[in-house]
Design goal:
Layout: E1 10-13, E2 16-19, H1 35-41, E3 45-50, E4 66-67, E5 85-92, H2 105-113, H3 133-141, E6 150-153, E7 162-164, E8 167-168, H4 169-173, E9 177-179, E10 182-183, H5 190-198, H6 203-216, H7 225-232, H8 237-261, E11 266-268, E12 271-273, H9 281-297, E13 303-307, H10 326-330, H11 336-362, E14 364-365, E15 368-369, E16 374-379, E17 395-398, E18 409-418, H12 419-429
Parallel strand pairs: 3-13, 3-16, 5-18, 6-13
Antiparallel strand pairs: 1-2, 4-18, 5-17, 7-8, 9-10, 11-12, 14-15, 16-17
């Protein structure tokens, strides 16, 4: 190689700025040095994935604490990455309970999930809850990347009005809060997320480039071709192959977005997907997973939230033979048939989590993978959707936190351990100082 490349090099073209994956040429802070040095240099990421309406806990919770020998039915899709997954039980979100405010558990589940704070019951403009852990971290380390954080989802949600027993729709639709009174809205259109990740920030140029791509069926790669060819002359064989692999992944996503853009608007029992969003809900989730993976691979951000659906979502799942609404099914009243359908929906969601984790694990960073250098929390702040309880939550932690977390286990914490204690342990690992967070009263041991 004739020259070294800075970690934050971008390939540029009109309306385009494409970040690079980790390359050997990015020495001296290379991740391809000795293992100890690689561990110190690898960026650590945090992601938080929210699923709605609780879980069928009988098919989620492992039978015993300790090493994961067999996975429960809902978690079986994770078998390929089982050693990098930790099931956490005993965690609670006390602030999701009524605390004198009456009904509204779904709204409180969302608002409390990452804040550990009790939302003010209002459907007016005076919303208030707390800063979420993702935004707390972004305020400290978000300046290290192009985007401080990335907020995505698969269901739009209103930001005002009454969505749950007197609670504002802002609570039901957002898990990310930059202040006590300011939710950070998610983007649900994968094409817009793609443009945000790879655009140069100049809206006029970006719109012109998009129009040209659509008109002439061009790839975004065509606009950075000259810069890319110039760079590849200075790369070794391994780096050239890695760059080609990265470009192939980007192009595949473009092609899937093109198919999605031709999908008509659909309406499934009140859940509206705008034109451009895939009609196939599974494909929608996978595309968003791809966006998250790309943003981590190119170090565009190290913090992301992903709401697969809003709490209280009554989406049906005809792709797995379930035409009943999810929320209606969650109030199963002990009906075995409804419970069976709930566990199938839960497993469907986990199958897409597995898709994301396997993708992150396939992206290598020296001796490790992006998944090894990630802490990904998956779950919600309702346990049994029928009971609406907020203790013994279904929470999963994926990734190894840069080698500081031992996976392949079920850790059973003391009952009523605040979920915020988990966040404290995660903040420690990304070097974000905090004496407390939300309703935390300590930290949890993940080693």
């Amino acid at each position: 190689m004739s020259r070294l490349i800075h970690r934050r090099t971008f390939l540029r073209g009109v309306g385009t700025a494409m970040a690079l994956p980790v390359l050997e040429a990015m020495a001296p802070s290379s991740l391809f040095a000795a293992p100890a040095a690689a561990a110190q240099q690898a960026p650590l990421r945090m992601a938080f994935l929210f699923v709605p309406n609780g879980m069928h806990m009988a098919d989620w919770k492992p039978s015993a604490a300790g090493d994961l020998t067999e996975l429960p039915y809902i978690l079986e899709p994770l078998k390929k990455v089982k050693e990098k997954v930790t099931i956490l039980t005993g965690l609670a979100q006390d602030k999701a309970r009524p605390l004198g405010d009456g009904p509204g558990d779904h709204a409180r589940s969302v608002a409390t999930f990452l804040t550990g704070a009790h939302p003010r019951k209002t459907n007016g403009a005076d919303i208030k809850v707390g800063v979420s852990v993702d935004q707390f971290a972004a305020q400290h380390i978000g300046n290290k990347t192009r985007f401080p954080s990335l907020e995505i989802g698969c269901e739009r949600g209103a930001q005002a009005g009454n969505c749950d027993s007197g609670y504002s729709c802002a609570y039901s639709s957002n898990i990310s809060w930059s202040s006590e009174t300011t939710p950070v809205a998610k983007e649900v259109d994968p094409r817009l997320v793609f443009d945000r990740l790879f655009g140069n920030g100049d809206r006029k140029e970006m719109d012109a480039t998009r129009a040209k791509r659509d008109r002439y069926r061009k790839s975004i790669l065509d606009f950075i071709l000259e810069d890319a060819n110039s760079l590849k002359k200075d790369l070794g064989v391994k780096d050239q192959a890695k760059l080609d692999e990265y470009f192939t992944g980007v192009r595949e996503i473009e092609q899937r977005l093109e198919v999605a853009s031709k999908s008509p608007a659909i309406d499934l029992k009140g859940v509206t997907a705008p034109a451009g969003v895939p009609q196939d809900f599974g494909e929608h989730i996978r595309l968003m997973c791809d966006m998250l993976a790309l943003s981590f691979q190119a170090d565009l951000t190290r913090i992301s939230t992903f709401m697969i659906a809003n709490d209280g979502s009554n989406r049906p799942y005809p792709m797995i033979g379930i035409t009943d609404g999810h929320h209606n099914l969650s109030h199963h009243g002990g009906d075995p048939e409804k419970q069976h359908k709930i566990r199938e929906i839960n497993r469907f969601h986990v199958s897409h989590l597995a898709y994301l984790l396997e993708k992150l694990d396939s992206i290598k960073e020296g001796e490790r993978s992006v998944l090894d250098n990630t802490m990904l929390v998956y779950g919600c702040a309702i346990s049994d959707g029928n009971r609406h309880n907020h203790d013994d939550l279904p929470v999963l932690l994926a990734g190894r936190g840069g080698g500081t977390i031992r996976g392949g286990r079920h850790i059973a914490f003391n009952h009523e351990t605040p979920m915020a204690n988990l966040f404290m342990s995660m903040l420690d690992r990304v070097h974000v100082p905090a004496d407390h967070f939300g309703d935390s009263n300590g930290r949890v041991d993940l080693t």
